[in-house]
Design a protein that fits this description.
This protein has 383 residues and is mainly alpha-helical. It has a domain of 140 residues. The chain is 69% helix and 0% strand. It is built from 14 helices and no strands. Helix 3 runs antiparallel to helix 4, helix 3 runs parallel beside helix 14 and helix 11 crosses helix 12. The longest helix has 28 residues. It is globular, with a radius of gyration of 23 Å. The termini are far apart.
């Protein structure tokens, strides 16, 4: 396969992982499921259709994981109407983000992998649970007890075993199934698996039938639906709780230093540190990274706050993204110029890519946090 084709496949996957998460705020469930599946199969795609050396992709892969999960969290600011469920999701998100940040800051091969078991990614599956409920039912009906039980069940019975499997046992599910279940070599294709295991197809048919029967039984036990099925987050929101992408959101009055600013600083700081730690070909101390990240956070906050005062409609948000992208790219160029004087260096192309992700995250947070404040009448001074 030619090098040109390899690069086309590579950038097609990277662009898909960049663009698909942008559908999550409006179409949460299909958006997050497609992003999750693409995250799981991207390296398989590269192995099957390219001859690329994937070693340099690891940094992109980790950054794009954080990117799509951050947008997933930001979409809860835009869409979720159950305040308690939102608060649970916020805790789950920042708990995981703190764990990943701690892991990256202390990373020395093979890394303190048990940290990722202590800080499991329960947020992602809890988000999926909430959005499944919202397909047919008003999530405001979710009681605190039901919300806590759902989060605890996901944490204990789904995420802990999964995190142990991936990060402690470090076993590949595909290889495990081929060797331990189907008794074939790891490089065996589907045809070889079916030929060696004729029971697979009947077992799949029986499993599908059982799933259909189980779903039908569950649907009969569930309360009557509140509305028709829709994947559009805006389809069941009224004027008080809804949001129009083309509309104008009046910024709340209040002090510059408020809870929204504090949360944004925490979010941007942890995401920036994670990005900085996984940048390929980067030689910089934690102090140099911290100084650079702190300066970017402060300047971005000043710019976004100033632009918010000028208006927060869709056009203003696009303007904010363009201005902040230009400013952040300029900061990266200055940083890249000055860093060699302190015996450090960065990969300029990779850094600009990660800064683009970070700028988009900040822009979306600024826009949708105002929706959250309006919906729950949260003051600018405190939550």
């Amino acid at each position: 396969m030619s090098e040109t084709t390899d690069l086309l496949v590579f950038w097609a996957v990277v662009l898909a992982r960049f663009l698909i998460p942008l559908t999550i705020p409006r179409y949460p469930l299909p958006g997050v499921l497609v992003a999750l599946v693409l995250d799981a199969i991207d390296q398989t795609i590269f192995q099957q259709f390219t001859n690329l050396n994937l070693e340099g992709y690891q940094g992109y892969d980790k950054a794009l994981d954080i990117y799509y999960l951050t947008i997933t969290y930001i979409s809860t600011l835009r869409n979720w109407t159950n305040l308690f469920a939102f608060q649970v999701s916020r805790f789950l998100w920042y708990y995981r983000l703190f764990g990943v940040t701690l892991f990256e800051l202390t990373y020395e091969p093979p890394g303190i992998r048990w940290l990722l078991l202590i800080f499991p990614n329960t947020f992602e599956y809890f988000f999926i649970f909430y959005e499944i409920v919202r397909l047919r039912w008003d999530p405001v009906r979710l009681t605190k007890r039901a919300t806590i039980i759902a989060a605890a069940a996901i944490w204990i019975f789904i995420k802990l075993p999964q995190e142990w499997w991936i990060h402690i046992a470090q076993m590949d599910m595909t290889d495990f199934l081929k060797e331990q279940v189907f008794g074939v070599p790891t490089d065996a294709g589907l045809g070889e698996i079916l030929q060696a295991n004729p029971w697979v197809i009947p077992a799949i048919i029986i499993l599908v039938v059982l799933i259909i029967l189980g779903v039908r039984w569950l649907l009969r036990k569930l309360p009557p639906a509140d509305w028709s099925l829709s994947f559009d987050a805006d389809s069941h929101l009224d004027e008080e709780t809804g949001f129009e992408e083309t509309g104008t959101i009046k910024p709340p009055s209040g002090r510059f230093f408020n809870s929204a600013l504090i949360e944004k600083i925490v979010l941007v700081a942890m995401v920036s540190v994670i990005f900085a730690q996984i940048l390929p070909d980067m030689r910089a101390t934690n102090l140099q990274v911290a100084v650079g990240v702190a300066f970017v956070i402060i300047l971005n906050t000043v710019i976004s706050h100033w632009l918010a005062r000028r208006g927060t409609d869709l056009g203003a948000s696009i303007l904010q993204f363009v201005v902040m992208t230009a400013v952040n790219f300029g900061l990266v160029l200055v940083y890249a110029f000055l860093l060699p004087n302190f015996e450090g260096s960065i990969n300029l192309g990779n850094t600009l890519f990660f800064v683009l992700l970070l700028t988009l995250i900040v822009t979306l947070f600024d826009r949708y946090h105002l929706v959250y404040q309006r919906r729950f009448a949260v003051s600018a001074a405190s939550d």
